[in-house]
Model the fold of this input.
Amino acid sequence: MPAINSWPGSIICVAKAETETNAVLAEVEKYLYREVRLLDERRFEEWTDLFAEDGYYWVPAYPNQTDPYKAVSIFFDDRQVMRTRLSRLDHLNIHAQKPPSRTVHIVSNIEIDEKHDVEGEILVHSTLQMMEFRLDKQTHYGGRAQHLLLKTDDGFMLKWKRVDLINCDGVFEPLAIPF
Amino acid sequence: MTSYDTNALRGLVQSDRVHKDFYINPDVFDIEMERIFGRIWLFVGHTSQVSNNGDYLTTTVARQPVIMSRDRDGKVHVMFNRCTHRGSQVCLEQFGNTKRFECPYHAWVFNNDGSFAGAPYPKGYADGFLDKEKLDLVKLPRMEIYRGFVFVSLSKDVPDIDDFLGPMKDHIDAFCDRSPEGEVEACAGVFRYRYDGNWKLQMENQTDVYHIMFTHVSTTDEDGKQFRREGAEEDEAGKVKVLAKNSRLDDQWEEHPLGGHRHGHVYMGRFAMDKKNSGPVYDRYKASMEKAYGDQAEENMTVRTHNSIFYPNWSIQHLTQHIRVMNPISVDCTENIIIPLKLKGAPEEMWHAALRSNNNSHSPSGMVMSDDMEVWVRCHEGLKTQSTDWVILARGMNEKFSGDNTGSYESHGTSESGARNQQLAWVDYMCGQG
Done:
């Protein structure tokens, strides 16, 4: 795993999208919408491929975490674990997903972090909800998301995605689909 | 009064099968809470979860909210989370640090050792009333600590803890002695999740080798290899072969060691296919172990059991490095607490690998636990049908047991001997032979 550098001090770091050009914001929005749509459409391999080779997906199990090695995480997947996890979702005998969950992800309140001043990177804050339906039960998850996007010649690449669920330290039922 | 007298309870468990009411009947559950959970030693937490003076955590013991705290002198206490005035819980945070607990209702105050520290407007009570009345937060009737593992009993009249744990004490020792400092540390928080099924379904599952290659088949790749569980430096090199390529019931499973002791404790031996670690990090670990234990180091480093399942409701998972508590909420709902444990003094890289392994296999999104939970829920639902009254646990009834007169035995393979041993203890407790 890559060394974790420093996380932006507060996850509720408010940024002013107005000062960014509308064009960049529109591009970022489009990217985020597609990112979660890949999950809803179960295009897991394509979702994994959004991440840089040393990229990772992190859902801490406690609020205000700064280091995934200091406490347990609901998800802390590098690409290898992501591939194992998501290829399992297509396994014929993944009992926990027979029948599979249907999900819809809703991304909103998208803001580009103005304080994040690193050449070639865009730090994005958003709110994220996921509705999940399986076996006559509908579950609603919500939290704040952060995406660190890398600008490449072929568009954005995900360095990391972090989701801080409001119920991160609560009692869960089994989860299968990333937020 | 319930319809279950001793004979009826005894009739639920036969030598090779149990009646569905054993799992799904709410009256049976209520009797379990009284005669099993109310009368024997229960695991509540590890002292390292409250490592500093003033630290506390809240949890439940047999459905009753409790606080485990460390007072200003470093002593650990476990007390009921109930104000001695009008009954309110005095603390709802999962964990924290405090000198005092203050009741939200009338601000009665208790020190972090539970002692009563005062009530507002004391003149409203008769002279000396507050001094005479016992107003400290009530401690659980018994508490014992063994190598940081905190046990409590809801009854004062409980057998000696050494007698209760018996040879299972060695399993706690074996885990702690893998640390160069001889100590484990719960310093990464906990996972909590629940499933809609009876607590015993999970207890029995933990000793069930038979299900591994079927329930967990989706965690294996085309070669039948599963991601490595033990903290390893190189995941790829350390992958574990769970399934043989062309045979589902490989000899490796039938040779798998199992065993148990009286009072319902059981264990699974180490999986034959779990490789030992190797590499520079492991070499550093080995060096620190040799420094600490000399000739004993190799022995201490060898993980001999996959898990140790303590009756009635907790286990040590040696390879994935966690304590698992199965708290019954109701007859058809069970809450799990997963507490990852660090081997103090071992290389930090090993801890990072263990933590990641716990995230991958035993978090709410864990690739191993989720299939197990699915099965327990389906079992509980299926058992509600009038299809047939009995659950068959006859596997391995034909094997020769090597046992002794203390109740210890050794078994092997995909036998259901572990579940049967737990059920024998259940009958003893429920019917008065415990």
